[in-house]
Design brief:
It is built from eight helices and 13 strands. The N terminus is likely disordered.
């Protein structure tokens, strides 16, 4: 009998996914604690000096004009992505574990024993149920800010302020205008004197002065909510593979554009939970239930966010032959690769996976048979 071997290519390296952190562990900080302390000392020294500090956009309240087209492209790519994903998911088998929430794309669902949470089975096998688009593309919401450099949302205002997808809020703050989500656009910059921000512009611009739906806090409470058209646009491709290709391109464009926006526009995340707030500072809503939230009185432990916090990625096991009814077993899990769920879904529909995910797929590894696993060298 000819034995197949698991060969590792010498020209490529295997990219390991970031490990899952325990509930008691804090997320890695983008900026080191020493650097944050140094900046705090500099700001404290500047507050003692009564002098004007010139701020650059977007810290001064103005838009970065070069990033306004990027924000529009990100929002357009998101619409195309949702359009394509909603159509491809109808022809794809998506499962999720009702105990731990793990997702699998393909049929049949895998038998890898990775369900290790409170309430899971003794053998750590998953309890699979039919999933959908929300399992493949989870949405992280953020409070919509009328004034991005104004005061933070308080706990008492948590039910008055709209929560919208964080990626949409980022595009709104970067220059995309929505009638249903009004945002203050300054014509003159703000100034910082002795640590205090001075805004010499009027409370509301002239073009919004006649609107009566703005209360004293700057939030639209009694506004008439507009209903956006939820019908997806017709795709230019009728075949499933063409839709998947467009969706893959939109996914990459959205990621690339969001990365550019986050280099200028700040996004905050909680160090212990998945809460995100787009803006220079986090909100003050006491809703955190993560590790030692009692010591923080329910407040979030805010820190600088990454792209994965803004657009969470659900990694699933990669199925090399989706049409062969291949069953992924626990004994061979070290030979399997992983992909983001939406990328795996488009790949199974016929789209080509880019070079970004080649090392995650482990295509250069030959998966042995179940009876050959012990003979692999």
């Amino acid at each position: 009998m000819k034995i197949r071997r698991a060969l590792f290519s010498t020209e490529s390296t295997i990219t390991e996914l970031p490990r899952r952190f325990k509930r008691s562990e804090r997320k890695p900080m983008v900026t080191s604690m020493n650097e944050l302390k140094r900046k705090a000392r500099v700001e404290k020294h500047e507050r003692l000096l009564v002098r004007e500090v010139t701020l650059s956009a977007p810290e001064n309240g103005l838009l970065v004009q070069s990033l306004v087209p990027v924000a529009r492209q990100v929002l357009a790519a998101r619409d195309v992505l949702l359009d394509c994903a909603a159509k491809v998911v109808k022809h794809t088998h998506v499962y999720f574990c009702s105990v731990c929430g793990e997702v699998h794309v393909g049929d049949p669902p895998h038998k890898i024993k990775t369900c290790n949470v409170v309430g899971s089975r003794m053998n750590k096998e998953h309890v699979w149920e039919k999933g959908g688009l929300k399992n493949v593309l989870p949405v992280v919401e953020s409070y919509h800010l009328y004034d991005r450099i104004g005061r933070a949302v308080s706990h008492n205002e948590r039910l008055q302020v709209d929560r919208i997808p964080a990626i949409v809020e980022l595009c709104v703050q970067a220059g995309v205008d929505f009638l249903e989500y009004p945002t203050r656009r300054r014509k003159f910059p703000v100034y910082r004197v002795a640590g205090r921000v001075l805004d010499f512009e009027k409370r509301f611009p002239n073009d919004l002065a006649s609107v009566k739906d703005i209360n004293e806090y700057g939030f639209w409470v009694n506004r008439k909510k507009l209903i956006r058209d939820e019908k997806y646009r017709e795709s230019t491709h009728d075949d499933l593979q063409g839709i998947a290709v467009r969706g893959m391109e939109a996914w990459e464009k959205m990621h690339l554009g969001a990365t550019k926006l986050m280099q200028k526009y700040a996004v905050q995340t909680c160090g212990y939970c998945s809460e995100v707030q787009v803006g220079p500072k986090g909100h003050r809503v006491r809703q955190c239930q993560a590790f030692k939230h009692q010591m923080r009185d329910g407040q979030h432990a805010w820190q600088e966010a990454t792209l994965d916090d803004l657009i969470p990625i659900v990694y699933v096991w990669h199925v090399k032959n989706p049409h062969g009814n291949e069953l992924l077993v626990d004994s061979l899990k070290r030979y399997y690769g992983k992909l983001p769920a939406v990328v795996e879904m488009f790949a199974q529909a016929g789209a080509c996976v880019g070079e970004t995910y080649c090392n995650l797929m482990r295509e250069d590894i030959t998966v042995p048979g179940v009876d050959e696993e012990k003979l692999v060298v």
